[in-house]
Amino acid sequence: AFLRNILNHQTFRNGEVTVNFIKNEPKLFEFKEPKNRANKLINFLGEVVVNGNPDVKKVDPRHKFTTPKIPSFSKLEKHPKGTKDLLTELGPEKFAEWLKKEKKIHFTDTTMRDAHQSLLATRMRTVDMLKVAEGYAKNFPDIFSMEVWGGATFDVCMRFLQENPWERLALLRKAMPNVLLQMLIRGSNGVGYTAYPDNLIEKFVEKSWETGVDVFRIFDSLNWMKSIEPCIKHVRNKTKGLAEASICYTGDILNPSKTKYDLKYYIQLAKDIENAGAHILGVKDMAGLLKPKAAYELISALKSEINIPIHLHTHDTSSIQSASYLKAIEAGVDVVDVALGGLSGLTSQPNFNSMVEMLRFNERENPLDAQKLAEYSNYWEVVRGYYYPFESGLKAGTGEVYEHEIPGGQYSNLKGQAIALGLEDKFTDVTKMYGEVNQMFGDIIKVTPSSKVVGDMAQYMITNNLTTEDVLERGESISFPQSVIGFFKGDLGQPVGGFPEKLQKIILKNEKPYTERPNEHLEPIDFEKEFAEFKENFSKGMGRELEITDFLSFKLYPKVFTDAYNKHLKFGNVMNIPTKNFFFGLEVGEEIMVDIESGKKVLISLVHKTEADENGNVTVFFKINGQMRVVSIKDNS
Ligand code: 3PY
Ligand code: ZN
Predict the structure, then answer these.
(1) For ligand 1, atom 1, which residue shows the shortest CA distance?
(2) Are the CB atoms for 296 and 327 separated by under 8 Å?
(3) Computed from CA positions of residues 53, 59, 62, 68, in that sequence, does the dihedral angle turn out positive or negative?
(4) Given its phi and psi angles, is residue 288 left (phi above 0), alpha (psi -120 to 50 degrees) or beta?
């Protein structure tokens, strides 16, 4: 074991061994760790075998799992030069100029972020991404970017998947060093649901860049420049990446009776974004409301009014968004967001494979290899089967989205929440109420976190049998959800046109609202002091040194991080357990191979489990590398 530790040590592998190497490296004498890690793994697997994964609410015993086929690629060949190399060579300004001059349409692949956020409640695990990431980057170096991080992934990684989001990013960076990696950041709300101190967001941006993010898609959930602008500055000052600040599209610019968000409004916002220093303009159609003709008019107008390239994002909830892309492409949009077939459509992005074909022999064709793309789409389609408990159940596109305007990324979550609250039968009522609440709130931009406020209120009203009139007439006696109170106080910033005053008074009761940036009320973080305290409090560690990125995770999500930390102490690193076994456990006789540290695998099989004894304990027999191990698990049923 000692020899193996030496051989595996980076210093040794780099050929930098000096006489003091062994003396200075106490870790070389740590042999027990792998055994310990394997034991922790069977604690986790034993729990799932006996009680199920707490995140899986319903198991379908008839569900058939199939094994995905990983498209071939050469491990030995280097990654071909791609967009990341071009960014390094040109720097962000020149890169943006290059992009604007490109004739062919460019694509962002959202499969590893928004697609599964919108179809599978963000549950996609890193192992499933890593199986194809390297090959994909080698096969498609021309892709504009891979959206792999941010949005809800940060929270869900820790809360439900027991993964470290920073580790995911670092691993994807390593597997895809040649293409741009993209994240979604909610302006001053970072990757959370509330405002954070400015210096926390600044450090977060800096560390995201260092770990692997190149393109920062920045937005604010109320299109409030005061929240977008500082974030653009952080990207410009702390990274060499691209600041892609976005307008969030809502309503319908073609509808003459919807005057709040008209073409003029969007053009002014786009100009403000350009003037604030963005390298790229994002047009973020989070609910998929941008109809084809509107897309043509909006993109044409933006193209003539601003000088930076334009990147369009939509969700195919209505199922007509590929038509909008076609019109936007005709109007000169530079990049569009798509998801590989198997994880595309409905609340996700339009189908990448079909988009490529739609534009075949078009003057803006991007000549990607359809055969190879199909192999990746098939991979994801099969992998998707492992995540069936998280499917939203939406079977067809819906025109109702133009009424309720629920963002694609929220739809599957809202459905899950409705089920948890026993409101499954009333889901249509919830979506209807969502639209009503939006009107009551003054027709606001709805995207995380403002969309969560509208969703919380809609569910609250349905659960308590309340109508809009009830709220307006006897709201004084109603105690509203915390997120709604915070919103009306000003915690998410200021909506376009301000708050409806009467409702604001009803909801806030005696609390006073404010109109400054919420961040101005927040104390800056003292990194040196607080990081030291953090290291002390979490001293049992993760089997490694705690890093500043762990501290950032803690500051963004204190409770979620603490829970994840405690689970880590008990179960160790569960990220490499195959997805089927992570969610559904093992069957008797089933044998799996799990990576417990880079390159070191253990073979685990389930031999037998007993009935629960009189104390409710089940004894589970595993074999680890052929050796019998036993765990006792309390049956919670
Ligand atoms: C997020 O903020 O997570 C979104 O995807 C918004 O559309
Ligand atoms: Zn989206």
Answers:
(1) 151
(2) yes
(3) negative
(4) left
C-beta of residue 318 within 8 angstroms of C-beta of residue 286: no
pLDDT one-digit tens code per residue, 446-486? 999 999 999 999 999 999 999 999 999 999 999 999 999 99
Q: How many residues in total does the chain contain?
A: 637
Q: What is the pLDDT of residue 31?
A: 46
Q: What are 5's two structure tokens?
A: 């530790």
Span of 181-195, 345-359, 392-406 with lowest mean pLDDT: 392-406
Residue 530 neighbours by CB distance under 10 Å: 13
* pLDDT tens digit sequence for 285-330: 999 999 999 999 999 999 999 999 999 999 999 999 999 999 999 9
Ligand 2 centre distance from Cα of residue 359 (Å): 23
Query: Ramachandran region of residue 128, left (φ > 0), alpha (ψ -120 to 50) or beta?
Result: alpha
Please write the tens of the pLDDT for every residue from 146-164.
999 999 999 999 999 999 9
Q: 83-126, pLDDT tens digit by residue? A: 999 999 999 999 999 999 999 999 999 999 999 999 999 999 99
State ipTM. Answer: 0.97
The residue among 2 and 11 whose pLDDT is bigger is 11
Nearest to 183 by CA among 195, 193, 191: 191
Strands 591-597 and 600-609: antiparallel
531 CA distance to ligand 2 centroid (A)? 33
Give SS3 for 339: strand
Ligand 1 pocket test target in 184, 222, 289 with most atoms within 8 Å of CB: 184
Query: What's the pLDDT tens digit per position in 109-119?
Result: 999 999 999 99
Does residue 406 line the site of ligand 1, with CB under 6 A? no
**pLDDT value at residue 338:** 99
Whether residue 402 contacts residue 252, with contact meaning beta carbons closer than 8 Å, is answered with: yes
Query: What contacts 155, CB < 8 A, 6 or more positions away?
Result: 122, 191, 192, 557, 560
Say what percent of the chain tops pLDDT 70. 94
- Distance, CA of 507 to CA of 481 (rounded, Å): 10
SS3 624: strand
Q: Is the CB of 447 under 6 A from ligand 1?
A: yes
The ligand 1 atom nearest the CA atom of 449: 2
Integer angstrom CA distances of residue 197 from 191, 236, 301, 527: 13, 18, 36, 12
Is the shortest distance between the CB of 409 and ligand 1 below 6 Å?
yes
Q: Whole-number mean pLDDT of the chain?
A: 94
Identity (one letter) of the amino acid at 270? A
3-state secondary structure of 284: strand
Q: Is 186 in the pocket of ligand 1 (CB under 6 A)?
A: yes
Indicate the SS3 state at residue 363. Answer: coil
Residue carrying structure tokens 């060499």:
240
Per-residue pLDDT for 616 more than 60? Answer: yes
Over residues 181-187, the mean pLDDT reads 98
Expressed in angstroms and rounded, the spacing between residue 635 Cα and the centre of ligand 1 is: 38
- Ligand 1 pocket test: pick from 448, 450, 492 the residue with the most ligand atoms within 8 Å of its Cβ: 448
Region 412-420: what's the mean pLDDT?
Answer: 77
**Distant-in-sequence contacts of 430-434, Cβ < 8 A, 24+ apart:** 430/458, 430/459, 430/462, 431/400, 431/404, 431/406, 431/458, 432/403, 432/404, 433/458, 433/459, 433/461, 433/462, 434/404, 434/405, 434/406, 434/458
d(CA 103, CA 106): 9
